[in-house]
Amino acid sequence: LQFQTINALDKRRLRKNHLVQRGKYVYKLDSTMEDQNVSEIHLPVSTKRPPMGIVFPKHCIPHRKTAIVIPYRNRLDHLMLFVRHMHSILQRQEIEYGIYVINLAGDALFNRAKLLNIGFKEVMKHFPGYDCIIFHDVDLLPEDDRNLYTCSSEPKHMSAAINIFHYKIPYQQIFGGVTAMTPEQFRLVNGYSNEYWGWGGEDDDMFRRIFRMCMSVYRISSNVARYHMAKHTHDKGNEVLPERFNILKGADNRQSWDGLSSLEYQVLNRQYNFLYNNITVLIGSPN
Ligand code: UD2
Ligand code: MN
Which of 132, 131, 65 is nearest to 94 (CA)? Predict the structure, then answer.
């Protein structure tokens, strides 16, 4: 079908930037031309099979490509629950996706933020076509299919309503749990700070980075943004970081040089698989 054959009724059904597929062509309504024209766009969709470790819908051509990055060490029970739960939801949402476990080797201090920075670099290397990166605690399970695993024009805090907080947001500046950022948004803030060793602070630091770059945080309705957190205690090697409030005071000053731009790590192993991709890393220890 050529674009001329998309009739007025079809045009009315199209929203701005909405993609339509007709046979092997994908069209979008050009927002500058309003409803005068429907232009063919360069296919964001590829007929090439994505690499091993990425799952894609078979009955339609996906245009949303999401990587889920999980900071991880020694939580196998949670990870098994997570993959069992997530695949069916993501497939019902018709997203092309890969799940990446960034597995910290050894017994050094845990550093969630640094593992997330590594995750970002590694997923973009594996598949540069991702348009959304979701940073995901392994112990959180979404409860509602309408909570789409996609990005927004502002960084998105997805886990606004968690059972352990009685499904209410504990404080407005929270940016932990599950968050979604486009590669552009994440690069703009220079990723996470690498300076938070142990539990706490790294999520609040990211909240500041976002606002410092004149962005804001988007949340969907708490009826939909519902999560269940598996029960757990504090892990060994991830003790509460008492200096986190002091480190947080210097957040703005560190942003330009502490983050993606200063990230150093070592990869011990990369395994790409449909259930999940495992990247085992060493991250060093605090200076
Ligand atoms: C909160 C935040 C979390 C993070 C953390 C402070 C929410 C809902 N969650 O979680 O995003 O900001 O505080 O750092 O706001 N992990 C392991 N192995 C370990 C330790 C941690 O896999 O030994 C991973 C795992 O994915 C876990 C995550 O790190 O879910 C966060 O650690 P947590 O679950 O102990 O912290 P929690 O629930 O207080
Ligand atoms: Mn937790």
Answer: 65
Which residues, 6+ apart, have CB-to-CB distance to 233 below 8 Å? none
137: CA distance to ligand 1 center in Å?
6
At 209-251, the pLDDT tens digits run: 999 999 999 999 999 999 999 989 999 999 999 999 999 999 9
Residue 162 in contact with ligand 1 by CB distance below 6 A:
yes
| Span from the CA of 55 to the centroid of ligand 2 (angstroms) | 26
Cβ atoms within 10 Å, residue 209: 24
Question: pTM of the entire structure?
Answer: 0.86
| ipTM exceeds 0.95 | yes
Distance CA 224, CA 20 (A): 27
The full length of the chain comes to 287
Above 80 in pLDDT, residue 44? no
Q: For residues 112 and 60, what is the distance between their CA atoms, to the nearest angstrom?
A: 35
| Ligand 1 atom closest to Cα of residue 136 | 26
Question: Using a 6 Å cutoff on CB, does residue 186 contact ligand 1?
Answer: no
Residue environment code for 4-36, b if the CB has 16+ CB neighbours within 10 A, otherwise e: eebeeeeeeebeeeeebeeeeebbbbbeeeeee
Cα within 13 Å of Cα(252), Cβ side: 5
